[in-house]
Amino acid sequence: MKIAIIGAGPRGIAVADRLVARSEKEKVNVEIKMYDPYPIGGKVWNPMNKLNHSLITNTVVSQVSFFIDDSIENPGPIRQGPSFYEWIQQIAPEYLKGSSVGKTYLDKLDLKENDFAPRGLLGLYQQWFFENIRKQTEKNSSLAYEQTEIKAITPVNQQYKIDFSGTSEKFDFVFMALGYGENKYNDEERTFAEFAKRNKLSYFGPANPSETNLDDIPATQAVIIRGLGLTFFDYMIMLTENRGGKFVQDGEQLKYIASGREPIIFAGSRSGLPLHARGRNQKGPSEEYKPRFFTKNNLKNLKNHTGNLDYNSFFKLFDKEIQYKHYENLIKDPDYSN
Length: 338
Ligand SMILES: Cc1cc2nc3c(=O)[nH]c(=O)nc-3n(C[C@H](O)[C@H](O)[C@H](O)COP(=O)(O)OP(=O)(O)OC[C@H]3O[C@@H](n4cnc5c(N)ncnc54)[C@H](O)[C@@H]3O)c2cc1C
What we know:
Layout: E1 2-6, H1 10-26, E2 31-35, H2 42-45, H3 84-90, H4 92-95, H5 105-109, H6 119-136, E3 142-146, E4 150-156, E5 159-164, E6 167-171, E7 173-176, H7 187-198, E8 222-226, H8 230-239, E9 246-250, E10 253-257, E11 264-268, H9 296-302, H10 311-332, H11 334-337
Parallel strand pairs: 1-2, 1-7, 2-3, 8-11
Antiparallel strand pairs: 4-5, 5-6, 9-10
The structure holds flavin-adenine dinucleotide.
């Protein structure tokens, strides 16, 4: 059976993993080919993009793993393997020796289990994981990867013809794991872009910051960043730390030491408020909070005759859970009880 996976990001890699694991168990021979114009890890985690080594992931390292466990419904054969943090500790020092990031990379990062890693390092974990799946393929199965873009897919009889770089190939099944597409400007964004063009200014629409070139923005130039979500932090790092500035701890706060090469950033969001900072992780790896009130069963019981849930009863249940956990934490907190 010939299978194509388009996209070498996390989803494409996860599909490859499950196909190989299942084919092994069910003794089916599969020939899997994966395609992406970016290296394994895909566009978001591409370890070859230098910026992905200064922009970070938004999940702490101990809570990321490519190995599935039985918390997934109907997962197929489970293979044990290291979480991202365990990989950083146990495998990466040797694995990264010959890689583009160099020997001292991990030492400089000095990642602890509740730290956020650079995206490029997660890309390297994905590359290691992919190599690991390849080693699991049975004698008559294979998993290959080609760095190329798929131009078209056409159904032909019971198969699919895939076109890439001047040639084509037929497959029995195709998985499309394409991630986010390119954004087209909406009317408002088009107005901004046109205004910028008329006034010889620069406008950067919604995009992946690591693929946006900010080098032409001179020091002390005024820059407006619209929105204070995750993309804001990418642009802020690119315009501060990546220009030689440093954030240093000053008591409970961070102090910024400018390099003098930064633009002047005016930041704002439509809601008028900065988004909530991410809570400090207090759970161990794979540890899940088990709700007492906000359970599947209670949610099911709240459904009315049309099968819908009204917002007030949903919120009441949710609020109960949050309050319960909050007061439980307070009671257990020695600083509070004393
Ligand atoms: C800037 C940014 C930062 C993010 N940060 C985080 C984070 O910190 N934590 C988190 O959990 N999630 C984050 N995400 C969300 C991220 O999209 C998912 O974590 C994850 O990458 C989704 O995996 P995916 O495989 O579905 O898509 P992607 O990772 O986007 O991979 C899809 C791949 O398909 C390829 N592709 C598309 N079209 C073709 C074609 N025609 N031919 C061949 N290949 C093709 C693309 O090149 C791409 O590599 C971030 C997303 C972005 C854009």
